[in-house]
Each structure stands twice: as C-alpha cells, then as structure tokens.
Amino acid sequence: xxxxxxxxxxxxxxxxxxxxxxxxxxxxxxxxxxxxxxxxxxxxxxxxxxxxxxxxxxxxxxxxxxxxxxxxxxxxxxxxxxxxxxxxxxxxxxxxxxxxxxxxxxxxxxxxxxxxxxxxxxxxxxxxxxxxxxxxxxxxxxxxxxxxxxxxxxxxxxxxxxxxxxxxxxxxxxxxxxxxxxxxxxxxxxxxxxxxxxxxxxxxxxxxxxxxxxxxxxxxxxxxxxxxxxxxxxxxxxxxxxxxxxxxxxxxxxxxxxxxxxxxxxxxxxxxxxxxxxxxxxxxxxxxxxxxxxxxxxxxxxxxxxxxxxxxxxxxxxxxxxxxxxxxxxxxxxxxxxxxxxxxxxxxxxxxxx
Amino acid sequence: xxxxxxxxxxxxxxxxxxxxxxxxxxxxxxxxxxxxxxxxxxxxxxxxxxxxxxxxxxxxxxxxxxxxxxxxxxxxxxxxxxxxxxxxxxxxxxxxxxxxxxxxxxxxxxxxxxxxxxxxxxxxxxxxxxxxxxxxxxxxxxxxxxxxxxxxxxxxxxxxxxxxxxxxxxxxxxxxxxxxxxxxxxxxxxxxxxxxxxxxxxxxxxxxxxxxxxxxxxxxxxxxxxxxxxxxxxxxxxxxxxxxxxxxxxxxxxxxxxxxxxxxxxxxxxxxxxxxxxxxxxxxxxxxxxxxxxxxxxxxxxxxxxxxxxxxxxxxxxxxxxxxxxxxxxxxxxxxxxxxxxxxxxxxxxxxxxxxxxxxxxxxxxxxxxxxxxxxxxxxxxxxxxxxxxxx
Lengths: 354, 392
Hints:
The complex is a heterodimer.
Chain A: H1 5-25, H2 31-36, H3 40-49, H4 68-80, H5 88-100, H6 104-107, H7 110-114, E1 120-123, E2 133-135, E3 138-142, E4 146-147, E5 154-159, E6 162-167, E7 174-179, E8 185-195, E9 201-204, H8 205-244, E10 246-247, E11 250-251, H9 256-282, H10 287-316, H11 318-321, H12 326-339, H13 344-353
Parallel strand pairs in A: 1-5
Antiparallel strand pairs in A: 2-3, 3-8, 4-8, 5-6, 6-9, 7-8, 10-11
Chain B: H1 7-23, H2 26-34, H3 40-53, H4 71-83, H5 91-104, H6 107-119, E1 124-127, E2 143-147, E3 150-157, E4 168-174, E5 185-191, E6 197-203, E7 209-222, E8 226-227, H7 233-247, H8 251-267, H9 280-308, H10 318-339, H11 355-367, H12 378-389
Parallel strand pairs in B: 1-4
Antiparallel strand pairs in B: 2-3, 3-7, 4-5, 5-8, 6-7
Helix pairs in contact in B: 1-4, 4-8, 5-6, 5-7, 8-9, 8-10, 9-10, 10-11, 10-12
Keywords (chain B): FAD, Flavoprotein, Oxidoreductase
Organism (chain B): Azospirillum oleiclasticum
Family (chain B): Belongs to the acyl-CoA dehydrogenase family.
C-alpha cells in the first residue's frame, strides 16, 4: 500500500481540488438553511462532473480505477463540510461490489451513476426488526436506517440469500421517512414479499454473503472517513476560535488546561486516521484482516472519536452549544456515524467473541 | 496488519524471524519473560550475539556499522525481537549515544566509542536530569569549568538509569552562565570510573535497583571529551530526545506483553468456575486494548513509512509517546485485574508455575508508572502538540 511520492502528489491534488470545490459550492450551513437551498439532483450531477462517481469504477468497466484510499480521501472532504448529499454508496460501495460480482445488474448502472443520473443508497438489515431475506424471488423484512434512500434511484439491498439492486421508484416498499440529528434524511424500508426480478440480482448464496461482508466493511470505511473529515475540520475551527476568544485578558489558547484537552483530541484524531489508513489498505486484501480493521476503526470512532469532538464543545463553551455554530454539528455528525452500521459496543462484542 | 507491508517486507520478516529464533539462547528468553530489569551480563550477551550478525546497531547507517535497513525494516526487526522474548538492548548506547556521536562527534570519538557500543563491551548512562532539573532540563546546574588540558565537572545527576553498571556517561553540563539557560550547555563524555564519580542507588517502587543518583565531584575530563561544539549541548540533547520518541512508544513490547497477558488470562481460573479470559468484562477490555494497540501500530507505521520515503516526522511524533505510554499502563492495569489477589502478594511459591510470570507483571505494573513521566512527561508532550502542531 506504500504510496510513492508521485501517487501522494496526485492524492494531494485531488484532495485540494475537492476541498476548494466544496468550500466554494457547498460550505457548511445550518441544516435548515441547507434544506432550503438547492435541488439534490442538481448537486448530484455537479459532483458527477467532478468525476466522483467514476473514480472507484474499475478501468475495465469504464471508470477511473482509483483505489480505496483515494475514495476515502474524497469522503473525508465531504465530511469536512458535512455535505448532505449521501454520496458514499455511489462513490465507494456500488462500484466495488460491481467489480466483485459477475452479474451485470450493478455494472450496467455504473455509467448512469458516473453521469449523476443514478444514485445508490445502501439498504441493510436491522438487528431489531425482521431480518431482510430473499427467498423464492421475494424480499421480506425491515431495513436499518438507510441514509439517502429517499433521494436514491436505486437501492442496493443487502439481504440474507441475495444482494440485489432494486429500482427505487418501481419497488413497493413501506417507507418511513426520518430526519437524522445531523440533518440528513434516512428511511426505514419495510418489504412484504416484494418481487426481486432476476435482472436485479447482483449475487446469491455464498457470493452474496461474501459481498454482504464486504459491503458492511466498505460502509464502515466510508462512514469513518466522513466522520474523520468532520472531526478534522472541527478541530481546525476550534483552534481558530481558541486563538481569537479572550477571557481573563488572554486568549483561551494560552491556558494549558485547554491546550491539553486539545492535544488529547489531536492524538485521538490521528489514531482514527491511522486506523482508517489501515482499513483503506485492508479493503483490497484478505477479508479477515479487513473485518478486524473495520471493527477497530468503528470502535475507535465510537469511543475516542466522540471523546475528541466532545472536548471541542467543552473548550468552545457556549459557542459549541449554539445551533448556528458548526462545532455542535460536528458532534452530531460523529454521533450519527457512531450509531450507523453497528455501535462501538456491537463491534467490541463481536471482536471479543472472535 | 499485513496489508500495511509490502511483499518484500513480509519476506524480510520471515527471514529475521527465523534468524532470531536460531540466535536467541533459551535461557535469555526465559529471563526476559521473568523480569523487567535485566543484568548487564544478560544484555551484553545478546548484544554480542547480534553484533556478530551485524545487527546490534541495526538502526544505524551502514557507514557506521549499522545495517542500512529502512525504518520499516527496523520496525519489523524490533517486533520480531520482542516476539521472541529477546532481551532489550541497553537503550543508552545503541539508541541514544551512538546516533549522537556519529552525527555530532569527532572522527576520534567515533573510532573510539562506536565499536564498543555495537559490541556491547561498554555500557553508557545518560547524565541529563538533576534533582532540580527534570522537565525543565535547561535549568540544570552541573558545571564544566575549563582548566588546562581539559574540563572539571562539578554537580549531581538524578534518576540515572543503569548508572551503577555503566562504563561511560553522556553528560550535559553548563559551560556558560552568561547566556540564556539553553544556550550555555555542552555535552561531555565522562568515564564512570574517574576519580570524583560516586554512584548511589535509588530503589524504585517495584523494589528494584535500576536508577541512581550520581555525584560528580571535581571530575576531570580531557579536552577531547567535549562532543561537538562548545555551548551546543542543548541542540544535541534535543536531537537525542527526538530519537527517543518513537522508541518510547514501546509498541513491540506492548504487543508481546498483551499476547502473553491474554494467555495468562486464558489459564487463570475465575472465581465461580471457568477462566478469567471468559469473563465478559475482561473480554471487552481485551478487545478494546486490541483496538488501541492497532491504532498505535498503524500510527507508527504511518510515520515510519514516511521516513522510509525520505519524509522526516515533525512534532506530531509526540503523539506516539503519549498514546504508547498510556497503553503500556492500560495493559498492566488489566494484568492486575486478571491476577486479582494473586497479583498483590510477593511471597515466592515454587509450586506454582505461573508465580514468576505474575511477579513480572506486578513489577512491570509498578515500574510502568514511570513511562508517562520519563523522556518528557506526557504533559510536556501535550504542550508540544498544542503549541507546535495545533498552534495554540
């Protein structure tokens, strides 16, 4: 996974251009202001023009063939501005699952995704409701929170027995539309004997189980990348604030108690970045190591990552509590990320058992 | 963490693993498992064995008798040494003084001292800290006074690890009191057998003798004992501490000890039946520590991969000392909970095969209070991170 100077320079170019674009076109705004502005489909096509949805697509399928590390860099940038558009599944997960299956069900949609016309949302089972299951060509069960399902054109449904890609408009699901604490939209979908046509099947049997495991780890990687970006931006904003805000006649930044809290947050952010780096490399390797790396990153996010952003609220005082100031939203973005795709306790339990 | 290594590095790991297993005497591995402070003889023996293979100064450049390995290869070598329970090398000679001398020393100093550091024939100690100069090192009061043909050193050094069996000291002393504290210090090589040197043991809370107070009473050293330039000692000492940082994360030892702790927990009976390792609370803590250890390993590999590609780490390397030292303590905290009452008594019980292992854990647990203190306390490191990395 070692990156040459040349590869690193390309990474940096890509990251910088994504950052410039996002800061100019989609700077962080309060969720209410965000929802009022803009049309999701237009945003999506704009991001497609940047090549975001072709990057993870293998070259033989007409894409740019970027590795996981590079896709995760973009997702970190999206996290920095806390972008509402739920790009993770289209950018990272769908192309990689398409490459890992030999069915045309997904591959045939990748061109449309690259153009911004096809938008995927990942739909996974919940450990609370009836499990998602495909049997005899029919889908049953209740999903976990599916971020972006409402604005997606296609659902990538990870169910026992099959991985399928369903046309959202043509799928009769009972939808419960929800607003997450970080401002994004999510849905809980209930399927009662929904027919799954053969042409929607991406994989069945063992292949489906293998891809389901990969999808779960990819979802964690994307979620952690987004959260890490948000955390890094949060720490940046906090340090700027600490240098400006004065109390007792001196900048808050000059107080050692405050400095040490921020140093702890920095150590935790870097630990999370290191685990994401490992996970990014492991996504291309052995599934056992990939699983361990994903669990480690998700646990670290839920524990140390949340602790890191909590301290940012602590040191920014009342400002961190204000809805109009971004730090509290970074907290909500991380809290959301911590709960999606298995909490730290959930992964710790499995890691401890295994 | 295989995916973070190249195929060549994986092959290198297999090669050094086989070599170390073949070279390491069983009794030395046994002693390393049993206790935290090894004797000079044991450390010297392993040092000599490695030197015969050309691996003692493995992290030095080839020009000075090192291996010329990349930082990642050194990481692999050190991790294999720890996994095999090889004794640690004395940290002062190979890790600290060697790099200082080949970077700043004269040709004569390199020729005189580097070979015996590599072979383990001479041991070194570090004369930096003083009773009134710990974290605030620049306030040290030991002086070196110029006399005809040399210098006279007068003062007192504190917390001198291995001072009781070291042959030589690398000593920081004030040579100019007219300038600001950092600017008036110089670095000297001092013979521990010279007249005026007296070493007094300090017993630490683990009951062992590894540190000392060293009195320097009108100790005469020749002109060529000065390392580098006069009054540049602070720069050199900081260089030395920089070298210490990653080493002080002690990641390989933590990984090895964590593995052994899991094994101990898996054979220690739990109250009410079963083994300690199966208690849900212990399992969760083990899994949590596994995650933290992985974060530390991945962070060090990130820094070393950069170094391997010629990018030197900045002050952010301070984070590995903070994370690594806390983790060492968390592992021994868990060990104490695994052992329960059996970890708090010190009576020898020859009939219990795990008595030695447990005593080792208790000693480590007590002695490890020091790891968040030495080499710049964690509070100092956090201040460095806050000021130089975060710009606070």
